[in-house]
Amino acid sequence: MGYARTQIARPDQAVDGLIVAHDADDALRYAVSAFPCLHLMTYEVTFQLTTSRARKHFAGETRSVVASASDSVRSGARLRR
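^ thats the sequence. predicted structure below, dont judge the formating
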């Protein structure tokens, strides 16, 4: 914000800041509250993985590629012949 205020903004232009975080603890919330031009937003990401089968030709042979994951703990891909 300081760089934007001194190097980019015009003298009559206000500069606001935004912190985007997955989690915000009390220390961060208190720190942000000390600066009226600084804002805090948290985000949430949700997604769902489904099995997808694709046929690919590699060196004259056909293989099925299968991607799988379990409960967002691990994910990976493997080749089946």
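The radius of gyration is 24 Å.
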